[in-house]
Every structure is written in structure tokens, then in C-alpha cells.
Amino acid sequence: MAGRTMRNRRISSRAVRVAAAAACASLVLAACGSTKDSVSSDEGGGSGKVGVILPLLTSPFWQSYNDYVPKMAKSEGVDALKTVNSNSDPSQQITDINNQLNQGVKGLVVAPLDSAAIAAGLDQAERKGVPVVAVDVAPDKGKVAMVVRANNVAYGEKACEYLGKQIPSGKVVQIMGDLASVNGRDRSEAFRSCVQQNYPKLKVLEIPAKWESDTAASKLDTLLNANPDIKGIYMQAGGVYLAPTLQTLKSKGMLKKAGEAGHIAIVSNDGIPQEFDAIRKGEIDATVSQPADAYAKYGMYYIKAAMQGKTFKPGPTDHDSEIVKLPSGILEDQLPAPLVTKDNVDDAELWGNTVK
């Protein structure tokens, strides 16, 4: 669901850009650095309450992130308020941001539902001088101190490469996320393009499911009725698509374990414990582990830094990731997200093996 975006006046935007450029030019060896060389322009500042806004709590992934938030806030020395759940409603998320601002928070960590609609909330925060860190989803526009996110293009590419190596030819399905979110767009286009370029004997069928489990189940059921010869499935979010996908396949007698005749190869995204169990059982083949723990940790790290006046520049970090500049000019810390298969599913370092 797209929301309204609020446009800054052209003159104001130009002034902000000129001022920012001048600041970085004069402090290039100081304030505009990576996590290795960032310094504070106000080492005594940066205190105050921080609001944390979740997109939803119906997914095990976001439930895990929610559990990590207070732990990581404590470890990073951030005074975080109790999390707020926007319940999959972009309009409610803007209201939630305004409510937090009215409570006097000095920083916000937000996981945007809609990459365009979130700009209205970012505008409100900027007017009040409150820095924002975006987690998981990058806004299309607006001011944020940092986006904490894994490379979602790599998600789609890893799924494509895995299925392409398992399936010589035939039909594969990608159950897509919400295309109003940059995550849904990145994963969908990356998977589609990778298949077209590298595995031309595969035919991609698509289900736009908007991160909704009921929608995924209904549309997958319909698609399988018309295409009972499906050989592979890419689920863009195991937290919401795993259970309905497995239930739909089981109801049709199509849920065969890996190694059995008729097995449909399945790759997912998220890295939740339920996916790991499904890999162990042979029900699905792989998932990309989206780092819920690191999202919480570095969300807190960057909001504290932003409240202290620290800034960053593109380049490698000291935590095995890389900060990149997006086309919008926003900086994004792209955290690592490994592919998990039966070969490494029991790795104790995976966050999905540390939660119940």
C-alpha cells in the first residue's frame, strides 16, 4: 500500500546538500568515516530516549528481532523505549513515528513497511532534528543516518543459483514480497534476471503475495492446479511463507523430501529456526540467513552514533560488512547473509540456532 510522500522545497534541498558537502569537505579525515574512523562532533551528547518501530509481529523473523532489541540496546548503551508494532499498515507506521516524536524521543530506529510512504515520517523527524536509522528496508527518499540491511539483490541471486544448479529445466515459482518495498523489488528482479541470464531452460512463474501468508497459500494453490509440474520454489520470506507453502504442498500430495522422487526444491529467505528444522527434515533445501541479531545490534549502534553527531562514509567496516552509497545518496551498511543448506544448518554461529 503506497502512502503519500512530502516534498521538500527545491531551495531547501539544495541548501542541505550544499551544507552537507561543505561539512564533509572540511571534515573528510574526521567525521565522514567508516565505523573504523568515525568520531563524534559532540562526545558528551547523544543521550535520550530512542523509539523502535517494527513493521509487524506476525513473522517469526520479526518476533526474533523484537526479542533482540532490548538486549542489543543494553549492550550498546542505548535507552530504548518499548517497541511499537505498526501491524503491517504503512499509514499506521507514520502515526507511530509521530507519536514517538511527540513523546520527545531523541532518536528513531524504524523498519519501513513501504519504501515510498516512509518519507512522510522521515520528514517529520527531520523537522524536529531527530535522527533516524532504517532497518531492513531502505527508503526511496528522505533523510536517514544509515540503513542497516543485508544485500537483498544477493538474496535473489543466491536463490536463483541454488535452484539453477538443482534443476536442469522446467518451471520454478517465486513467491514475492510486497513490491512497494525495495526488498520485494530487489529480490524479485534479482531472481528473475539471474534465471534469464544464467538458466534459460527454467521458466519463472510469479506470485505477488505482499508478505501475506493467506495470499501466498491461495495463489500457490491456484498456480499448482494449473501447473502440477512445478520443480522449484523461491520463497522471499520464510517467516510468512514457509508454513502456508508446506501446508499447500502437503494437501496436494506434493510435499516430498529431498532425495525422493518428485521432490520440489525450495529455497527461502530469513534464517528462522522453523526453516532450519525444515531443512533438517528435507522439506526445503536452503535459506538465506537474514541477520535479525545484527539488525538489532547495528540499528542501536548507528542511532547512538547519529545522536552523538557521528557520520560515516562508504567502505569496509570493522564488522565484516560494507557501507555503500545508494542511488538516493543514502548510506547503507550491507551486513553478511549466508546461504544455509543441510551442510551448514547446524552451525552454532547462525542466529537461528541460538533462539527457540
Question: Could you characterize what this model shows?
Answer:
The chain has ten helices and 15 strands. With 356 residues, the protein is of the alpha/beta class. Helix 6 (182-198) links the parallel strand 7 (170-176) and strand 8. The chain starts with 9 loop residues before the first helix and ends in a 16-residue tail after the last strand. Residues 1-44 have low confidence and may be disordered.
List the helices and strands and how they pair.
Layout: H1 10-26, E1 49-54, H2 60-76, E2 79-80, E3 84-85, H3 90-102, E4 107-110, H4 118-127, E5 132-135, E6 146-150, H5 152-166, E7 170-176, H6 182-198, E8 202-208, H7 213-226, E9 230-235, H8 238-251, E10 265-270, H9 273-281, E11 286-289, H10 292-307, E12 315-316, E13 322-325, E14 331-335, E15 339-340
Helix pairs in contact: 2-10, 3-4, 5-6, 7-8
Short description:
The protein is α/β, with parallel strands linked by helices and 356 residues long. The protein is built from 10 helices and 15 strands.
The number of distinct β-strands equals 15
> Overall mean pLDDT score?
89
Helix content: 25-40%
Bin the strand percentage: 15-25%
Distance between the termini: 33 Å
Gyration radius, in Å: 21 Å
Overall geometry comes to elongated
Order of helices and strands: HEHEEHEHEEHEHEHEHEHEHEEEE
Helix/strand structural class:
alpha/beta
**Main sheet specs:** 9 strands, mixed
Helical stretch count?
A: 10
Low-confidence stretches: 1-44
Entry keywords:
356 residues; alpha/beta; six-stranded mixed sheet; 10 helices; 40% helix; elongated; disordered N terminus
